[in-house]
User: What shape does this take?
Amino acid sequence: MNSMFDKRLLGLIIVVGVVAGLIGAFYTHLLHYIQHFMYHYSDSDHLSFGQAVARVSPEYRVMALALCGLVGGIGWVLIHRYGEPLVDIKKAIQDTTKEMPPLTTFLHATLQIITVGMGSPLGREVAPREASAGIMTGLLRHVDMKSEDKALIIACAAGAGLAAVYNSPLSATIFILETLIVTWNVRSMGAALLSCGLATLVVRQAGVGDTIQYTMAQPPLYGSYQEFAIVLGAVIAIGVVLFDKTQSMLPKFDRKSPKMMVISIIAFTIIGAMAMYFPEILGNGKAGNQVTFTDSVTWDYALGLMGAKWIAVLLALVAGAYGGRITPSMMLGSTLSLAFAALWSIMVSPVSLGFAAFLGAVIFLGLAQKMPITSCVFMLELSRFSVEMLFPITLAMGSALIVQQIVKARFSL
Assistant: This one.
């Protein structure tokens, strides 16, 4: 213990957990406040965000998203023009001399939460990761320690932020090890587990509670679900490759230019227009997952949702908006999979469409965000479904990873 963790490092790991937990609680409450204010509902209404959005008029959705574009456009132009240059979490971990500016990073992260609450189609999970890592970066300026220890603290801060906002300590731990520091030694695992566990403890005690993101019955496993899982992995892999390709083709604009304000308003107004017909595309994607996991939409509506969400995410990125891709990726996977499962059920043998949507969300997320193992655990933590689901998940994820590499190599993508 003494050879791997001195008192200072252990103390900082504890601080990480507390800071990330408080940030997660603050952003969760802020997100809910913005959502309630924008879409005129409260906790007493017992409505989900998706239900609240569907309840307002189609014209109101357009107005709300135009306002979101205005707020985001002005906010990010000001941040890029007058704030310190933003530093990506991975860059800060790889090179600890490239510090994340605490104040600018916090404002940047907070703006992400505000825009997602207003209806931006991007995710909320990057904000607590960046804010937690940024705050710890500022604290580390006053601590003399090795660069590898600083990198571990920043990585734990980012992962603990994810644990706090999604109530997912184990998958956040794996996220740290699998994607941020890419090492699995005892020292790293101990730091990651403790910081993510503490962050979850703090956020549960700070008024958020032991929340379950998807409170629904586990979909049944029947029919040729094993064979379906393997084939679905290939289908999702192709979908992810195409989505990555479309993202790479997006035009690049000067984010400091005032023109970005106009582009942002136009792009988000278009998103609002699509939401007149597909209200589930607003917000990070949870609303879309809720209707697909419960098999509450037809296959053709699911395809429409996928197309609309796909375009909405691209428009938000063109507009210069920031946000996570975790839940948007899940929604793209769940909608595509439900439609494919409907076809499979007709041509091969029946499978549960809710099961297919859940499985597709796992696979698309794992591939699109380059965190396959994290994704397998993450979805079970969000839903509290049985580990029985790990069997088809492993079949599908293995198939998807292989097909993704083959497709990329074949077409030089």
Q: What stands out?
A: The mean pLDDT is 93.
